[in-house]
Amino acid sequence: MFSVSTEVEKPKLIPTKIWKCKNADCKAWVREEFAEAEQTCPICKGPMHRSMRHLPAVQNKIKSQPRKKKGEFDF
Questions:
Q1: Model pTM?
Q2: What are phi and psi of 14, to 5 degrees?
Q3: Which pLDDT tens digit goes with each residue over 53-74?
Q4: Which helix (DSSP H) or strand (DSSP E) does residue 56 occupy?
Q5: In angstroms, rounded to a whole number, what is the distance separating the alpha carbons of residues 41 and 19?
Q6: Which domain of life is it from (predicted)?
Q7: Hey, where are the domains in the chain?
């Protein structure tokens, strides 16, 4: 018989700043880099507080610049 290895490489976890809902019944949290300026829970609209979690790193995509119309040039 053949042995098939199904090991999945686990991502490296790094300490990450987050905002976490203060309501014990609500499990919402968001990475600080994706949080809104006003920290209110996106689910229950309650207050949030800073915390830390060990999470996999995310790669932020660079927003592309709007395309220029034909004939438009920067000088």
A1: 0.63
A2: -125, 150
A3: 999 998 766 555 566 566 655 5
A4: strand 48-56
A5: 9
A6: Bacteria
A7: 13-56
Given a contact cutoff of 8 angstroms between Cβ atoms, the answer to whether 66 and 74 are in contact is: no
pLDDT in tens, 22-52: 999 999 999 999 888 888 999 999 999 999 9
Q: What is the DSSP letter of 67?
A: P
Rounded to whole angstroms, the Cα distance separating 49 from 21 reads: 6
Q: Report residue 50 as tokens.
A: 């800073």
**Burial zone of 2 (CB within 10 Å; 0-12 exposed, 13-18 middle, 19+ buried):** exposed
Neighbours of 4 (CB within 10 A): 5
